[in-house]
Amino acid sequence: MSTPRTVAVGAPSTLPTAPRGSAPHRVLTIAGSDSGGGAGIQADMRTFATLGVHACVAITAITVQNSVGVQDFREVDPAIVAAQIDSVAADIGVEAAKTGMLASTAIIEAVAAAVDAQGIGRDRVAPLVVDPVAASMHGDPLLAAEALDALRSVLIPRATLVTPNLDEVRLITGIDVTDADSQRDAAHALLRLGARWALVKGGHLRDSPESPDLLTDGAEYIAFTAPRVPTGHDHGAGDTLAAAITAALAHGRAVPEAVEFGKAWVTEGLRWAYPLGAGHGPVNPLWAVAVAAPSPA
Fold first, then answer.
1. Are 262 and 245 in contact (CB under 8 A)?
2. Distance CA 38, CA 185 (A)
3. Which of 153, 205, 254, 256 has a Cα at 20 to 30 A from 161?
4. Alpha carbon distances (Å) from 137 to 38, 100, 134, 275
């Protein structure tokens, strides 16, 4: 097997914005709502807004959560989830989409049927980023255990890119990633499930001085590295990364370039993360707004 090409992720950049009065690129997030505002739909919307793309949403669940954990959630009727996708895609159009919390087999199946009908997914007009959210960062379950089979057999085969963290990839593939070799094995297992590209994130390899992510389509291997940011405030990091990648894909960037862009974006968001409540604060994509703002007089 070929040695991965290593890309040291540099300074973050932004995406071109549409001229005033003209429609920007259009994206769709299919995910759950976070009442604490740090992850889920809220993290996606903050990222999309700061990147200058128009975001449509299909809400899959309403969570009761804050900085210390998820206390409860309620699923949205799968038919309503699908109807949200159909409504916005048929009228507004979708140039790229992502999934987050899907909660149940019925919702996964409804989402799969809707993205198929609207030309979203692997080898379709609009790419689909699958962020396979299975649990919150506090360990609270956000996906029914029996829905893992649907995630493997129904959703991942439709993914242009799948972006699990190490806990999620262990649940999906049974592989415990501890080093570069097992990270590659996990990526191959995701490709065998049908994803076009697999990104196995290494942010949870806490003993590593860097945060190493491996991207592959089975032919090309790229190891994206960035210095580990010493912060306990990383709520919504996976959502923010996937959203930034989705925005870049909507601009027509190839998957490797979109992943490099997203990695740089979320790394800077971690540097600007802030404390919130009694637990974990969120990744902060608003760094771009702060950088762009004029200095006080």
1. yes
2. 31
3. 205
4. 11, 13, 10, 15
pLDDT digits (tens, 9 = 90+) for 65-96: 999 999 999 999 999 999 999 999 999 999 99
* 227: helix, strand or coil: strand
Percent share of the chain, pLDDT over 90 = 84
SS (H, E, C) 48-88: HHHCCCEEEEEEEEEEEEECCEEEEEEECCHHHHHHHHHHH
CB-based burial, 214-245: b 16+ in 10 Å, e otherwise: bbbbeeebbbbbbebbebebbbbbbbbbbbbb
Which range, 32-36, 68-72, 179-183, 201-205, has the best average confidence (pLDDT)?
A: 32-36
Against a cut of 0.85, is the pTM above it? yes
Q: How far apart, in whole angstroms, are the C-alpha atoms of residue 289 and residue 283?
A: 14
Per residue in 153-198, pLDDT (tens digit) is: 999 999 999 999 999 999 999 999 998 899 999 999 999 999 999 9
How far is residue 295's CA from residue 94's CA, in Å, rounded to a whole number? 36
pLDDT at 206 over 60: no
Which residues have C-beta within 8 Å of that of residue 244, sequence separation ≥ 6? 47, 51, 261, 262, 265, 266, 285
- Cα separation, 133 vs 73, in Å, equals 14
Distances (CA, A) of 197 to 36, 126, 156, 190: 31, 15, 10, 8
